[in-house]
Design brief:
about 65% helix; two-stranded antiparallel ribbon; 16 helices
Length: about 350
């Protein structure tokens, strides 16, 4: 029963009883309290305890109603806090929360140290949780989500797996973003930089890649180099090649692979000049230089080069040189596989 209805009913009952008592006995009755005489009709004295009980009942009800109200507010605040904790755990950014009710705090504290991975659709969620769960599922399914559009740009910290996955999704569909990552590689995680570099190496020319030589690695440089033999207009020049060679930490095998490509792209004089300089600057390029000398049948230059080094060096090339002196029809590939030169 509502408080107002209860008061109305109690007062109505008091009035009825008072009126009934008055009709039976309309006389007054005097009560002396601390020297003061209280002279009221008998009916009033009859309903006075009822009114006092009503007053105490109202106070009692108000007290416990307020107590329940404040407890309900605590539950509502904790429910909102729990919703917030679930939100941050879903986006892999768990945050510690404060709860007013011990029964909730003792269990919900786990969310401050946990990330939630939802395996299936969930119904009955709050609009906020339903929205973020929908966004997370789209990201996991390979779709790029514009976080600014959903006012979530500041939700994810760098290194968050969902943020990284969203950026990887964007790389597959946005060529401009690939170059944006290349330009500002320090602003992105290793995984995003690596994926952007792989996509760039598969699609772009050396002319465009030249300005990003410092962010390239050997693996993706070789991917571009392999495309030279199969695609036109890759834009590989000796100047561009120098930019990459001076930046990358190339091995002996890497130099041989480069030589195997450039022998088809550059003139013999240009190619030999390049690798003569490379082997001067980096001993790992020596085998590649010798490889080119044999390819161009410059046996006198081979002999002079081998004489400049110890007999224990370049054993395979020395053996080939001796054979070619006797049988000029021998080719390098007949005796040495380019993959095993080093």
């Amino acid at each position: 029963m509502r408080l107002g209805l209860y008061i109305f009913a109690a007062l109505t009952l008091s009035v009825i009883i008072g009126a009934f008592a008055y009709t039976i006995n309309p006389n007054n009755y005097v009560v002396e309290i601390m020297g003061i005489n209280f002279n009221f009709p008998v009916a009033v004295w009859l309903i006075l305890p009822m009114l006092l009980l009503l007053a105490f009942t109202i106070v009692h009800m108000l007290f416990y109603s307020l107590k329940s109200y404040f407890k309900l507010k605590k539950w509502e605040r904790d429910a909102a806090t729990l919703d917030d904790a679930l939100y941050w755990s879903l986006v892999n950014e768990p945050k510690e929360q404060k709860y007013a009710i011990t029964e909730i705090a003792s269990s919900a504290a786990l969310l401050g140290k946990s990330s939630l991975n939802v395996l299936d659709n969930v119904e009955g969620l709050s609009p906020r949780l339903a929205k973020v769960l929908n966004i997370i599922n789209k990201i996991k399914n390979g779709e790029f989500i514009d976080l600014k559009e959903h006012k979530m740009a500041k939700v994810f910290n760098e290194g968050n797996p969902l943020l990284i996955q969203n950026r990887l999704n964007r790389l597959e569909s946005d060529e401009k973003f690939v170059e944006e990552v290349m330009k500002s590689s320090s602003s992105y995680s290793d995984m995003v930089r690596g994926q952007a570099l792989e996509i760039f190496a598969r699609k772009e020319t050396f002319f465009k890649a030249r300005k990003y030589a410092k962010v390239f690695d050997v693996k993706n440089f070789m991917v571009m180099l392999e495309r030279v033999n199969h695609e036109e207009e890759m834009g590989l020049t000796s100047e561009i090649l120098n930019d990459f060679v001076s930046t990358l930490k190339l091995t002996c095998s890497d130099f041989v692979k480069i030589a195997d490509v450039t022998k088809k792209q550059f003139t013999p004089d240009e190619n030999l000049a390049l690798f003569k300089q490379y082997q001067t600057d980096n001993p790992k390029a020596q085998n590649a230089y010798l490889y080119l000398l044999f390819e161009y049948e410059l046996l006198d230059a081979v002999a002079a080069y081998l004489e400049e080094h110890e007999e224990s060096e370049f054993v395979k090339f020395r053996a080939l040189y001796e054979l070619k002196k006797e049988h000029k029809n021998y080719k390098l590939e007949d005796l040495i596989d380019t993959d095993s030169i080093c």
